[in-house]
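Could you join me in thinking about how sequence relates to backbone shape in a protein? We need material for that, and I hope you will provide a protein of your own picking. Label the sequence line and the structure token line clearly, so we can match residues to local backbone shapes. Would you write everything just below, so we can both look at the same thing?
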Amino acid sequence: MNVPRYLIVPILAAAISSCQQKRAPESIDTTAENADTTVLDKTKVADTTAIEMPGDKPVPLAQLIVPGISVGQAAINESSEVVHKKLGKPDAGDAAMGKSVSIWYANHDTTGYVTQMYFSRDMGNDETSRVKQIRVTSPLFKVNNKIYTGVPFKIAESVYKLKKTATFEDKGGKCSLYDDVKGGIGFEVDDKGIITGIVVHETGREATGTYLAFFSNLKPIK
């Protein structure tokens, strides 16, 4: 069929527009789920950008665990003053000799998920109390969408160079602490092989060095 020349240009333009519409990528919803922990309730930050892991859906920054660096909006070596402004008044805590622990419970319920932070001062050099360890038990905090509390430990074990460094009891159950010292992350594992807690600490420093602040019955493995 012979197409008049004056119709050729409009037809080509329509065809190109149709192809572009079909190829347009779908938008990705990176909105975080509503948090059920006191920490996340207190940290309604403006930056809700999500970091995308290979093969995973994005994890919102307010819930992201970065080994050796941060958990959600709290970062290693950040001052206690800044952390408390972000997260609000702790539900419990203790302090002595330049060291302290702050505790936040989900919905202020002591039987619920917990976030604990260990702070320390470098006496004589830096009088600012700074975060040295961050421990969380809520599955809302994730390394990625495969590693968080409640999943089998073997998933984390396949990613990090973990060594069993201590044992302790929590809520009547026996647990073990596995630590990637160089990576700055440790995992609490129950007797069924499930991750029950995750701790982020300074890289190159063993978690057991200050884990007694969280569990007085901790028994380091030498």
The longest strand covers residues 126-136. The chain has one domain: 38-220. Helices lie at 5-23, 38-42, 80-87, 153-157. The chain has four helices and 14 strands.
